[in-house]
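Protein modeling request. Please complete all fields; requests missing the sequence field cannot be processed.
Requester role: graduate student
Desired output: 3D structure, token encoding
Chains: 1
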Amino acid sequence: MSVREILLLGKENLYKISKEIREDQLEKAKEVVEDLHDTIMEFRSKYGFGRAIAAPQIDELYRIIYMNYDDNAIAFVNPRLEPIGDEIFEIWDDCMSFPGLEVKLKRYKKVRVSYKDLEWKDCTIEFEGDLAELMQHEYDHLEGILAPQRAIDNKSFRINKDKLGCL
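Delivered output (167 residues):
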């Protein structure tokens, strides 16, 4: 088991753009995905939440996202995200990299993600609603963008006391 430290808001590597994985780095991608899995499962067992994590959050600047929700586990290698339609919604977003802080922002209601799986096969999946928001959040991590940078305005922040125990 390889539980890694989750970088917290303010750490320099959270603001850097991640590098694509090459096919000859697939073993490295699998190692990172295993670490992402172990880290999120440990976090979830301690705090009761956490559905996805991006490689930069464990200080790996690769374009990898790992989602684990409703008994579905998906590793996204080199994902490309595109909105489906123009419909957006507002949501209070949170993150394992800034536990307790929630940020009000806007996201697309539907998205399509093209990616490589861990066998280097091309895949595409579509998400709607909260999973679309989750994927946009994680994709932002690959671009070096955190939710506070997407806040609707300077009053779009609140503290969730139930999640402060994560610190």
